[in-house]
Specification:
two-stranded antiparallel ribbon, Four Helix Bundle (Hemerythrin (Met), subunit A), mainly alpha, globular
Length: about 200
């Protein structure tokens, strides 16, 4: 069977290397897995948005304010979801701002964190738009795992922190922040910020 090149994308990375993606038409191009990843990534960002709107950013968890836990979670997703070796820090980042072991003089507001969430979402969803199932087996430069494992590791890390942060909201308010699934529905309510 002959495959026809549908389009080629060349991306310039931070290390002055070019990434070349060739997309073939026909039977060679599969997207069942990447479509599932896209759907679950969209849900992840929806749940993060709800978490950010409901949490008390000044609540102290393990000696650090919640805003720092949020930034740690977002920064990790931004850095690791695609390829950590080809990553540029956000303009507002300072050394150790994402560390949960080192206190920071600088603080981030809810608006800054929501804007950062929006920029990460746009970047990752654009990446997922060009990703094919075949590319999930590729090992990004500088990584030890394939793309699928890199993505899964971020789901694990992200939801671990999101759960911790939501737990602090439950402790403080006795309200459960709404968490949606792939159907767009959640436990008691499908709208608003709380179950």
């Amino acid at each position: 069977m002959r495959r026809v090149i549908q389009y080629i994308i060349v991306i310039m990375s931070n290390s002055d290397k070019f990434l070349l993606y060739i997309f073939y038409g026909g039977a060679g191009m599969r997207s069942e897995l990447t479509n599932a990843i896209k759907l679950n990534t969209e849900v992840l960002f929806t749940n993060a948005n709800i978490m950010l709107q409901t949490c008390n950013l000044e609540f102290i968890l393990c000696d650090m304010p919640i805003w720092k836990h949020v930034y740690h979670m977002l920064h990790s997703c931004d850095q690791w979801y695609i390829n950590p070796s080809e990553y540029t820090e956000p303009d507002f980042h300072e050394l150790n701002l994402n560390s949960l072991d080192i206190k920071s003089e600088k603080t981030l507001s809810r608006d800054e964190l929501l804007q950062y969430l929006g920029s990460i979402k746009a970047k990752i969803m654009n990446y997922l738009d060009i990703l094919t199932d075949e590319m999930l087996y590729d090992i990004p430069s500088g990584c030890n795992s394939n793309r699928l494992c890199v993505i899964f590791s971020q789901f694990r890390h992200f939801y671990a922190h999101l759960g911790n942060i939501n737990a602090t909201t439950i402790i403080e308010t006795n309200k459960w922040p709404r968490v949606t699934g792939t159907t767009g529905k959640s436990g008691k309510s499908t709208e608003g910020l709380y179950e």
